[in-house]
Amino acid sequence: MSYIKPLLTEVMSDYCEEVWPLFANAIIDAKVWGNTG
Amino acid sequence: MELIKKNIVSENSANLLSYGSVTLGLAPGEIAEFCLSLSEMGAKASWSALNVIYMYCFSNQDSTEKIREQLKVLVLSVPLSKGQKGTPTDFHHWRDLAQKILKEHDAEFAVALARQLISASQYGFDHGDI
What we know:
Chain A is mainly α. Chain A is built from two helices and no strands. In chain A, α1 packs across α2. By secondary structure, chain B is mostly helical. Chain B has one domain (2-121). Chain B has helices at 2-5, 28-39, 43-59, 63-66, 68-77, 90-101, 107-121. The longest helix of chain B is centred in the middle third of the chain and has 17 residues, at 43-59. The mean pLDDT of chain B is 92. The chains are: A mainly alpha, B mainly alpha.
């Protein structure tokens, strides 16, 4: 069962302006995808 | 609560309060206060607190709005990274409560949820929760 993706999709869709910078920074820090930070 | 503090019963044991509508007679503020205190007792306890309040709200649909602020704290308090769950239904309860809160526009809560996910992602998620 998927839990995070549906909620994340909803949040990214409805609050893109507010939350996208957080994820952008996290990706830049390599903390989100791959946990290589 | 005292029994958990003294390690006489486990943090998980509070999950028993999720079953059988045993909290039905409590006022929303009372159960919310109990769950907030429980949540402060550790990672497992925070999941138990979320489960207890989830099942209370499930039986008391009107209560969700009355304890909205407390629900936000409880949703944001649980550790989402792998190996932190207490029961298989934990993530379902987390997602469902978060979605109920987000039915009312709340950018501050959305940002807090994003921070919660980003923070947990540093330690990885259980594959089945993604």
